[in-house]
TrEMBL record:
Basic and acidic residues biased stretches: 203-214
KW Metal-binding (keyword) present: yes
Descriptive protein name: Nucleoside deaminase
Region annotated Disordered, chain positions: 191-225
Pfam families in the record: dCMP_cyt_deam_1
Keywords: Metal-binding, Zinc
Compositional bias annotation for Low complexity: 191-201
PANTHER family documented for this protein: CYTOSINE DEAMINASE FAMILY MEMBER, TRNA(ADENINE(34)) DEAMINASE, CHLOROPLASTIC
Domain CMP/dCMP-type deaminase as annotated: residue spans: 9-119
């Protein structure tokens, strides 16, 4: 299959994920868009790096992309109409960070089976149920290759850093053999990975759990960056 360019709201999150992969950290990127599609904050995973911009985390297992984006928001404010776009399904830490940062909506590209069940946390009710961010993902339909790309980057990271977990002849290993890491940008890596991005739609409980009034969105419609 062939793929077009990375669609607007996903371009920056994936470029950040690519930057993280090339720096040795887990390839996850996150961008917070305001109601007009403006970039409010962005961050990436920096767990395997010594340095981060002021106010962000590095060199710790807590240095997740979503946390590093949300940590830039001023305290004590709510962010109605804001959406965090992240390349991989938010873990429990990042889901909680969304709640504490008063960001009401998160859209993710790839599912992460490790965190299966986190979407049921708001069922406990109370403040958690009331403040839990609406989750949207994984991407399906025409955006399905992006979901696969987000997951594939994580598999590439594992092939590089936890090779015992990745069997031979997987798409990640094929792409590494094809020189994936030489791609200068996520856009170039996406094009190189295109032959590995086909596959069936994922089955995922959140696809049906998402509020039916919210269509599967490619991003802020009008003023996408
Ligand atoms: Zn996380």
């Amino acid at each position: 299959m062939t793929v077009g360019p990375l669609p607007a709201p996903w371009h920056l999150p994936f470029e950040l994920a690519w930057e993280a992969l090339r720096a040795g950290s887990r390839p996850v990127g996150a961008v917070l868009y305001g109601p007009e599609g403006n970039v409010v904050a962005s961050g990436r995973n920096r767990s395997r790096e010594p340095d981060a911009p002021p106010g962000q985390l590095a060199g710790t297992d807590l240095a997740h992309a979503e946390v590093n984006a949300l940590a830039q928001l001023p305290a004590g404010r709510h962010h109605p109409g804001h959406r965090l776009y992240t390349t991989v399904e938010p873990c429990l830490l990042c889901s909680s960070a969304l709640m504490h940062a008063h960001v009401p909506h998160v859209v993710f590209a790839a599912p992460d089976e490790r965190w299966r069940g986190v979407e049921r946390v708001p069922e406990v009710g109370g403040a958690i149920g009331a403040r839990w961010a609406q989750r949207e993902g994984p991407l399906t339909g025409p955006l399905r290759p992006l979901a696969r790309f987000g997951g594939l980057l994580m598999e590439v990271w594992e092939a590089l850093h936890q090779p015992e977990r990745v069997p031979p002849h997987t798409p990640a290993r094929r792409l590494l053999d094809a020189g994936l890491l030489d791609a200068p940008t996520a856009e170039a890596a996406y094009a190189l990975a295109a032959p590995e991005l086909a596959g069936p739609e994922p089955t995922h409980p959140e696809s049906v759990r998402t509020d039916p009034t919210h269509r599967q969105s490619a991003g802020p419609e009008s003023a996408a960056p």
